[in-house]
Each structure stands twice: as structure tokens, then as C-alpha cells.
Write a structure and sequence with these properties.
- InterPro entries: Methyltransf_25, SAM-dependent_MTases_sf, TPMT.
- This protein is an alpha/beta fold.
- Helices cover 26% and strands 22% of the residues.
- The chain has 7 helices and 7 strands; from the N terminus they run αααβαβαββαβαββ.
- Strand 1, helix 4 and strand 2 form a beta-alpha-beta unit.
- The structure holds S-adenosylmethionine.
């Protein structure tokens, strides 16, 4: 059953309460001046009329389930991670923290500073060493770093068709040749698809050999949300950097 909280994906106005432990008050002046910190608003932000950061102001966002996605837990248990790991659009960090807890060096990046503050607080509370930094997923080359494993849990499906080539190029710029990108996104295989359903063909088109990618596998999966009882239909893609 889909619960109404899911409407938050499409941007109902959030209240002003800030989750305990965040430093929103410190950031509010900067965010009020320019909520996008000088970057181009994403298609999702244009559609909803508010910055990603606002999704984290009023309690857990609908994708913020407070634990790692089961697909990621299984992947880690099966040895799917290697080397330095980048989590793009990491949100409040549960996936990144799970991987870091296994001993991998992990950087989580996001444009939502409130989410990053929560992620850092979780890392401190759990005694897990993980790095969290503000970075634009469309300009990851600015990090000046490369990663053997890159994780996208719910970021790709927020991109519209016009944004996908730039996003794939940005990911390619930070992924070691021979490295692996994992994408967990809503799929178009109903019923009760998530708010940004993506087809297999769209995944293959975005991560094509001309863009430096080879899609190794696309599996049917579930992505857990706070408003689906048993998760929403998803694709779990394993994509190699060529
Ligand atoms: C659907 S949420 C998923 C968050 C997290 N991966 C999870 O599974 O809980 C998408 C995340 O991508 C972030 N995001 C969206 N556009 C971004 C961009 N251009 N650069 C970096 N992060 C972005 C949002 O702030 C949000 O935290």
C-alpha cells in the first residue's frame, strides 16, 4: 500500500522543524541567500520548487529508512565492494556507513548539507570512520579523486533525460577503469512503481560504451521507502567502467 507521506517526493512544503542534532540554524543564513549555493538547480528541484536540502528539514524524507537498503547489505555480504568507495547522493549516510563499517574507505557526497550533518552525527554516534562532503553529482571531477566502487542509491532516478549524459560523464570521471558502479533505482515494472520509474533501456542508454560504461547486469530488486510496505519495484544495475 502506498501511504500519503510519499507525496513528499513531489515536494509538498516542509515545515520548519529541524531534526535534533543538525546544525540547520548555522546554515540557514547561507541557504536563505542562495539555497543552491551557486550551482544549477536540478530538474527535481525545478519540479518541486525547493532545494534538496529542504527534504531533510521536517523529519525523515520518504527514502530515509534509517538503515541501509537490503540490496546494499546483500551486496556487501557477497563481496561486492572493493577499494575506495564513493556514495553519490548519500543522503543521511546509512548505505555509506554500512560499507564503511566493513573497513572500506568511504566518501559520501550530497548537495543537502542537512543530510550530511545527520550522516556525520550517525558516524560519530556509531564510531564509524567515514567522510561526508558537499559535492555536486554533476561535477564529481571537482573532487580530484578516483574510486574503485561507486554507489548510487536513488540518485540516478531523480535525473531527467537531459541530465543523464552529464551525470554519466561525471561518474566516469571519478571511477577507476575496471571499477564498478552500482545503481539502485525505481523501475517501471509495476504495480506500485516509485515516483521516478526508469526502464532497463534508459539505464542502458545512459551508461553506454561511448560514455565509458558497460552494463554488466540489471536485476529486478526492491527499494525500501517509508511509504511502501514491502518496498517499490527497482532495478539493481552493475555497471563496469571501461
Ligand atoms: C532519493 S535521495 C537518496 C538518498 C540516499 N542515497 C538514500 O538512499 O537514502 C537522493 C539524494 O540525492 C541527493 N542529490 C540530488 N541531486 C544531487 C546532486 N546534483 N549532487 C549531489 N547530491 C544530489 C539529494 O540531496 C538526496 O539526498
Amino acid at each position: 500500500m502506498v501511504k500519503t507521506r510519499g507525496l513528499a517526493y513531489h515536494g509538498e512544503v516542509a515545515g520548519s522543524a529541524v531534526r535534533k542534532g543538525t546544525t540547520m540554524s548555522e546554515r540557514s543564513e547561507t541557504l536563505a541567500d542562495d539555497p543552491f549555493s551557486g550551482r544549477q538547480p536540478t530538474s527535481h528541484e525545478r519540479m518541486t520548487g525547493r532545494p534538496w536540502d529542504a527534504s531533510y528539514h521536517d523529519g525523515p524524507a520518504p527514502w530515509d529508512i534509517g538503515r541501509p537498503q537490503p540490496v546494499m547489505v546483500r551486496l556487501a555480504a557477497e563481496g561486492g565492494f572493493a577499494g575506495a568507495v564513493l556514495d553519490v547522493g548519500c543522503g543521511t549516510g546509512d548505505n555509506a556507513l554500512h560499507v564503511a563499517s566493513l573497513g572500506f574507505p568511504v566518501l559520501g557526497v550530497d548537495v543537502a548539507e542537512t543530510a550530511l550533518a545527520i550522516a556525520r552525527e550517525k558516524a560519530a554516534d556509531r564510531g564509524i570512520a567515514a567522510e561526508f562532503a558537499v559535492a555536486d553529482a554533476f561535477h564529481l571531477e571537482r573532487l580530484g579523486r578516483r574510486f574503485e566502487t561507486v554507489l548510487d542509491c536513488g540518485m540516478f532516478h531523480t535525473c531527467d533525460g537531459d541530465e543523464r549524459p552529464a551525470y554519466a560523464a561525471s561518474l566516469a570521471s571519478v571511477t577507476e577503469h575496471g571499477g564498478t558502479l552500482y545503481v539502485l533505482c525505481f523501475s517501471d515494472e509495476g504495480p506500485e512503481t516509485g515516483p521516478h520509474p526508469v526502464s532497463r533501456e534508459e539505464l542502458r542508454a545512459a551508461f553506454n560504451p561511448g560514455a565509458g560504461w558497460n552494463v554488466a547486469a540489471i536485476e529486478s530488486a526492491r527499494v525500501q521507502t517509508t511509504f511502501h510496505d514491502n518496498g517499490a519495484p527497482a532495478w539493481f544495475a552493475t555497471i563496469k567502467r571501461v
